[in-house]
Amino acid sequence: MSVQTMESIGASLKTAIEGRDGRKLAGLYASDAVLRVMDRNNPPSKPREIKGRAAIATFWDDICSRTMTHKVDTSIAEGERLAFTQDCTYPDGTKVFCIAVVDLKDGLIARQTVIQAWDE
Amino acid sequence: MRTVDTRYARNGDVRIAYQVIGQGSLDLVFVPGFVSNLEILWEDPGFAHLVKRLSAFSRLILFDKRGTGLSDRFNPYGSPSLAAQVDDLLAVLNAAGSGRTALLGEADGVAVSLLFSTTHPQRTRALALYGGYAHFYGSVMQGQFLAEFLQKIDTDWGRGMTLQRFSASRADDQRFSAWWGRLERLSASPSSAMALARMSASIDIRDRLSKVQVPTMVVHRMGDVHVNPDGGRFLAANIPGATFTGLPGNDHPIWMGDIDRMADTVEEFLTGERRVPSGGRVLVALLIVRVLGARQLPDGINDQQRREQLANFRDLATNLLVLHGGHVLNWDLERITIRFDGAARAAQCALALRDLAETSSLRLAQGVHAGEIEASGDLASGFAIHVAERVAAAAQSGSVLVSSVVAELAKGSGLRFVESCTVDIDGFDAPVRLLSVAAEQHLEPVRHHKAEPSLAALTVREREVLHLVADGMSNAAIASRLDLSEHTVKRHVANMLLKLDLPTRTAAAAFSARHAKA
Questions:
Q1: Cβ A120–B24 below 8 Å, yes or no?
Q2: How confident is the model at residue B14 (pLDDT cuts 50, 70, 90)?
Q3: Any idea what the CATH number is for the domain that residue A104 is in?
């Protein structure tokens, strides 16, 4: 797997998320990466944790199977960290908005924290 | 209760109501059994809890099938087919943007889920089949019972008649039964209910089981009163690679009984992990007070007086609860739920409440249980509350029943417990022993000969109120005389009666007269 620079990983994340390419997304993570999700149902003291590349691959596969549009924007990079927003819309108009912070290690994502809010 | 948006998916001319809850990474659709109504089901704490649990790890999609709840009606004289239901489900998933979905089928919904997975394997992530069957006549009821069931729908639909068929444990709960009647009325018309029952009776998907290609778990409550667990076992044995999980309990609806255990099982199957228990649980003693006879008015008492009597009881009882360290979780006209830090305190408070009630025409039946509840603010939920309700339901008028765990916890408190009966409670493997409480365990009952309380215990204002009560004035008249609100007067009267240890206003008047003479 090629080691990626900060700029290229930001661009890869954007292309893969917007193109709903779960396999490509999974390839950006370290094998022992941890993805944490916080939302109304998973509060900060008990976030949902997805550990390891295999589980993260399933996570992205599930999300990419949805017929929804994703728009990745507002990337901010600093040192080994990257933050971006993700604006998603389901076919029935329901919206989800996420903000994610990513920590890189050796060019791969080692840790990601996602905060999300949605219409209901 | 949080309001969730209801949306409508279109399958041709038919519109199917659906709701989406949560944003977990995995899509999960609940395929309901007989009838449902997405607006009403949320009122049930069990249903809301199941939804909360499932939507913590998934994006949960709920819908009312055609002919039920908020969805379009069908012509009840034509038969709704399983194939049409599979198409409706596909329409819902398309509308919700779900490309690959895990299906949680309940009872009749198991056949719909299973047929969906064989028709659209690429759209199915996994199957969790609860309380289901492949062949109606083999697992649910025989032909002659079906005829009786249809007859019963014809004559009794909308009055909670199906509750007995679906849940043995809560069939005697009048309040729940009334709510269930509402659920029936708002879920389907009698003709639709009969058409759906006939459609369920035609279910025979035995030849389709071997065609399932997705990971499948079959789960069944082993005491299910509606669908025999053999129905579930048959599914598991004939679906390639399927597992079977038997859980304790006898309630048929998935959102009744031990919901957490059900949610744990489904979550573990779908995500591979079990949720760590949450930290909001606390161990408490629970007292449930059933106020009896609130509808049968003794001669000469009208509704207005009855209301006053209940309000007066509430004032006095509140004082007693505070003295015993109780915290009210819920206070309905006929049912009070109170939590305590200790088991003996709860039982002692129950005895005090019983004595208080005996000074009026009210009668109480009370139950005490100790266990963990999920507590946040004044809201509390949990299995222990359900158990306490069952204990209270078993209590007769004037008696205080406790579960055996309370009797054990209260050892050394001076309370005496006498074996009373046993009840079967959902979620317990063995019947639960109930004991009745007697106050003291001395051969010679110890009597606290209290000196008659003196007027000195009263505040100046309370003394003033006492004199006016003795003059036969109503609360309203006293309020106007003293330039106070009626509520404040009521509070003064209640405090005055409590301090003087007197049961009624009349007793207070007599007390006042005695002291005036002295």
A1: no
A2: very high
A3: 3.10.450.50
CA B351 to chain centre: 25
Q: How much is the average pLDDT of B458-463?
A: 86
Q: Are strands B7-11 and A108-118 parallel, antiparallel or unpaired?
A: unpaired
Using a cut of 0.80, tell me whether the model's pTM lies above it. no
Whether A73 has its CB under 8 Å from any CB of chain B: the answer is: no
Minimal Cα–Cα distance from A120 to chain B, Å?
A: 5
> What average pLDDT does the segment B387-414 reach?
90
* Total structural domains within chain A: 1
The domain in which residue A100 lies consists of 6-118
- Does any domain span residue A100? yes
> Is the CB of B95 less than 8 angstroms away from the CB of A120?
no
Domains of chain B: 7-271 (3.40.50.1820), 281-438 (3.30.70.1230), 455-517 (1.10.10.10)
For B298-345, what is each residue's pLDDT tens digit? Answer: 566 677 777 777 788 888 888 888 888 888 888 887 889 999 988 999
Q: Quote the minimal CA–CA distance from B261 to chain A in Å.
A: 19
Neighbours of A75 (CB within 10 A): 18
**Is B25 in Cβ contact with A41 (below 8 Å)?**
no
A42 CB neighbours in chain B (<8 A) are 56
Q: How confident is the model at residue B445 (pLDDT cuts 50, 70, 90)?
A: very low
Picking from B20, B22, B25, the nearest residue to A62 by CB comes out as B25
- Identify whether A83 is part of a domain: yes
- Cβ distance B19 to B7 under 8 Å? yes
Beta bridge partners of B367: B288, B401
C-beta separation of A89 from A95 below 8 A: yes
Q: Which of A 2-41 lie inside 8 A of B, CB atoms?
A: 37, 39-41
Digitized pLDDT (tens) for each residue of chain A, 120 residues in all: 445 677 788 899 999 999 999 999 999 999 999 999 999 888 898 899 999 999 999 999 999 999 999 999 978 888 899 999 999 999 989 999 999 999 999 989 999 999 999 987
d(CA B56, CA A55): 17
Identify the CA nearest to B239 among candidates B137, B142, B138, B126.
B126
Confidence of residue B241 (pLDDT cuts 50, 70, 90): very high
Residue A71 in any domain: the answer is yes
Task: Work out the minimum CA distance from B103 to partner chain A, whole angstroms.
Answer: 14
